[in-house]
Amino acid sequence: MIRSLLAFAILMMFASCIPKDQYDTVVTERDFYRNKTIEADSIADVKALQTYDRVDNTSAEQRDRIRELESLKATNLAINSSYQTLQTRYDDLLRQNQQLLTNSGQEVTELQRSLAERTQELSKKEADLRRMEIDLGAREAALARVDSNAPEVTAQPPGAVTPRGASDRPAISGSRNAALRLNEIQSDLNQLLAYLPAGTYLVGQTADNRLRVTLSEASLTSDGYVISEAGTTLLRKMANTLRNYPRAKFNVIGHAGGDEEDPQSAYEQSTDKAISIGQALIDFGISPTAVMVSGKGYYAPVAESATEAGREANRRLEIVVSIAE
């Protein structure tokens, strides 16, 4: 705008004739406005330069910040990559540790199972040995009793001729033959019952030359009265063995647990169990004339009836075997 005014003033000066003083005034005004114009242009240039410099400085700061940001992003990516690598390694180590723990647990379980099996096998062998010792002791005792009752053999005079068909050994007495048969039955039953758990049965000879077979109630019945499938199998096997001894007699005796309040009810329950077992033996081939049944209630306990374990031991069934001489 100032430049426009200055140009207009010069134009007017040349367009018309004016006095010198007015000319000088116009020149002064021209110089004033020129100086103002130069000053304004200088200030504008300085401002423009400052603006340019500021813009340049701002651009440089932005570039620096961008580079710093990019550097931070690169650092963050590197740290994240390292973190992911460490996380993967940690997961691998954790998985390996879990696998080791699982394998160790399986090995411990396998060792425990093997130990339990060996312990059970050892217990079974020990029980077999005890039964064999009892069997052997009973046989020796029976033979000793038979030998003590055997008749003496009279020596024949020199030159005596033994009748044809006669034996050099004395005839076996009826009591000795009965004892030998009982030993055979005991051995057969021990072998037959060996598969049952230890403590659920007992086979042994009595002082009056009889054989007592004791069976737990649980090995024969499901509820104390109804013969179970396992009990049926057991009684069938026993009957198949005992049929080989036609001279044998069997007295089946039932026993109550001792927790019954009414003695008459306990006697009836024990008798009913004996009748059920005796009838099963008859059904499996034992002669009815060889089987007797009876019940003793809770009057012949083998353990204290104050505990469940004692009552369970008392709830048993006995088969007393005798051989006619």
Question: Overview of this structure, please?
Answer:
The chain is an alpha+beta fold and 325 residues long. About 6% of the residues have low confidence. It contains 6 helices and 5 strands. Strands 1-2-5-3-4 form a 5-stranded mixed beta sheet. α1 packs antiparallel against α2, α2 runs antiparallel to α3 and α3 runs antiparallel to α4.
- What is the distance, rounded to the nearest whole angstrom, between the alpha carbons of the first and last residues? 159 Å
Overall radius of gyration:
60 Å
Instruction: Tell me, briefly, the overall form.
Output: rod-shaped
Pick out the low-confidence regions. 152-171
Entry summary:
The protein has six helices and five strands. The chain is of the alpha+beta class and 325 residues long.
Provide key terms for this protein.
325 residues; alpha+beta; single chain; 5-stranded mixed beta sheet
